């Protein structure tokens, strides 16, 4: 937080110093100074989805989050994300419409805050708004090209010295590109006076700060741990139907450490093997399974009971990682009921349970203290290190080094899902995870990882940091 406040202060100073000669020699009144830094804070907030010079992932992984909050946000993620995207686009569009506000505010005119907003609105135009959006798109494309280009070069030439130079180059060049775009957008009059000593001091310190943060965010890779291979829904390379006893029987012969599968609770408290929260009922909208009785679900769909699946898994000596599915309509005592119903079967092998439902995991842990419980992420956000679980199953596309560091603080196991490409498998392994949930278990089993040769993959993490 202190680093973030320093960064915002430095950013405001760079913007002020970069004003044309005459503007930055004006005496700042307290009102103008407050207005300047409120505007800079607002710009920093708007820049969060665009990486904020590498701070976004750091901030996202540091947000305190309770178990109940984590579950609610994850269950309602689609509505929340769409709503936030709409609000963000509106806020960014309106801000671009009044993008000359800062120059007008810091001019010699003593116009009030509201009058300055009106002047900035009047100064804008539809054409200017379109050009502003294009400038942001140009920045995104440029940052993407810089990072992927440097990554591709490291893929072709494996050299540790080149690797460290590449990290420094990304951390130096990308913030300049983003800063230039921000300055260009939020006043057409802003320019760099390269003869200004203050500009070099403030700009240099700001770049140093972002470089340090960026360098800390991408690790240098870890010697890969032996990967725990977790067969996603019991299927390997599309050789069966997920979450079925037939697939379990077919693929347990490979003796992978775990088969991951999904269960849903019906309205009358039966647990069935199913991934999707809803089932289709003729002449009706899709219905959530936990609002229907087992008899109703069976009337329209083939159903396999979890109790039968668990018995077969125990007979085949195949440990499971069971994903307990959660919706807004899930029964409040679902975890306790699940543990009570399957207490004996769950303790025959080292079966595990993971879920987005933190409260249900804690219910299971209270009933079955020796059963390992894990938190599944769909959106990688928040500081989850204080949540009392044994392991994490993290969505692999947006997993960051900050998140892995916070989750790994107590040596808890970290898995990623669903890694099916060689690139994704390399990245997760070199970032230091303990295992991977995959539809391509054989591919992962035969994956040969060389840290010095494959470290280049980690440079792709800068796409998460800066975009």
UniProtKB/TrEMBL annotation:
Signal peptide: none annotated. GO terms for molecular function: phosphoric diester hydrolase activity. Keywords: Membrane, Transmembrane, Transmembrane helix. This is Glycerophosphoryl diester phosphodiesterase. Gene3D superfamilies: Phosphatidylinositol (PI) phosphodiesterase. It comes from Lentilactobacillus rapi. The chain crosses the membrane at residues 6-23, 35-55, 75-94, 133-157, 199-218. Residues 227-448 form the GP-PDE domain. Pfam families: GDPD. InterPro entries: GP_PDE_dom, PLC-like_Pdiesterase_TIM-brl. One of its GO terms (biological process) is lipid metabolic process.
